[in-house]
Amino acid sequence: MVGLNLFAFFLSGICASLLVALTSLLGIEWIKHKQRIKRQDLMRKRGEYFNLHGGQLLTDMMNIENNISFKLYDREEIELATKGFDKMSIIGEGGQGTVFKGYNLDQVHNPVAIKKCKGFDENSRTEFTQELLILSRVNHENIVKLIGCCLQFEVPVLVYEFVPNKTLHYLIHSQNDPSIRTLEIRLKVAAESAEAFSYLHSLDHPILHGDVKSMNILLSNNFIAKVSDFGCSKIRAADGHDDVVKGKIGYLDPEYLLKFELTDKSDVYSFGVILLELLTRRTPLSKQKVSLASVFQEAMKEGLFLELIDTEILHEDNMGLIGDLASLACQCLAMTSESRPTMSMIAEELRRIEKQVQQHPGVLTSISSLSQPASSAADTSEHFTGETNRYDSLRRVAAMSIEFAR
User: Fold this and answer.
1) CA 217 to chain centre
2) Fewer Cβ within 10 Å of end Cβ, the chain: N or C?
3) Which parts of the sequence belong to the Protein kinase domain (predicted)?
């Protein structure tokens, strides 16, 4: 009887173990089934995102032009590089997206900058795809290189060259060491940036940046300027029109606000504001929402612009040079685009000034500006006193920029 009970107990234990094992097996298979469904759903979504963002069109274009050194990354590579877009990896945020510092893409240890865009218009995917290809061909030492992209997320993810130091905006307005903010360094960064924009404007398919500001000029080792963030860039179309305001308050071209037409001279105007930042170390827009460009132009007319110049660079032996730079900035800020110089002219003038400084350190003499001598503030102010009614109209539009700019 005891033996029978032991046998029954042993048999029930085996049955219970088998039941537990079977339940566990079924549970594991259910989990695997759910994971397969999840993976299939993820793969389906990846394919949908890829096609939605013009991935197939981009692939076809890349196959036709097989000499393009541009890579399409898989979602896993981007997630691994950013640790799942960890907030600790964020190195920048703006109106067009969030930038993360990423590692180990392509099995290399050099970091990259991974930009997750904030939105995408599927109606413009053909233009977006064409623009990606054109930007991938951009090759200039003073422009941040676009390495590749991933189109398997809800929004496009762009992979750029990583620039180790901070921005020109930080150098001008935030850091506290005047020894790395000398006039020579400021001139160097300005000249290299102007050359980068000149290069973009001179391409077979000219690229208009559309968001020129000191925050979009990065500084690499030895203060090498690197123009970045083509989130607002626009390849020049036949009509050149665009009905969406782009750019940042304080940098916006008043003529663009009037016509909603982005041109190379829109970038020139914004670059003129950067030159004012370099000269004055003031922000483009004060806390009272007063435009630096308007204040400086008024000071030029009154012959009082030296009162606005940063004391770190204002010395008796460089008054002529300061006058030339002020004149150049004001020419960039002319209310009508026809009155503004081209970026190539600006770059040439800045290099000429920089060369003069290098040849005669400590003895800085006046250099002629692009369209007129800048021997005095009074001479320079003549550029502003002979304007027409159109000038006055555009100045009113400039004052309205705060209302319309994002």
Assistant:
1) 7
2) N
3) 85-363
